[in-house]
Amino acid sequence: MIAHHPHGLRQRLGVRFATKLKNAQLHLFTFLRYEDVEPTNNAAGTALKAAVRQGGAGSSSNQSEA
Description:
single chain; about 65% helix; flat; mainly alpha; disordered C terminus
């Protein structure tokens, strides 16, 4: 847990997080620039769930049948 780390480590973790957030900024708010992009990830999540239920490639159900 970060609360128990020395101040220097907390600061480095904060700087690292801020850097990653800054680098991802354009991708995080794509829905603001494009009208046809939903602000949620519901479509992708639904598609992944359907693939898992059907035993998509690399799923544990397919591997156990081998």
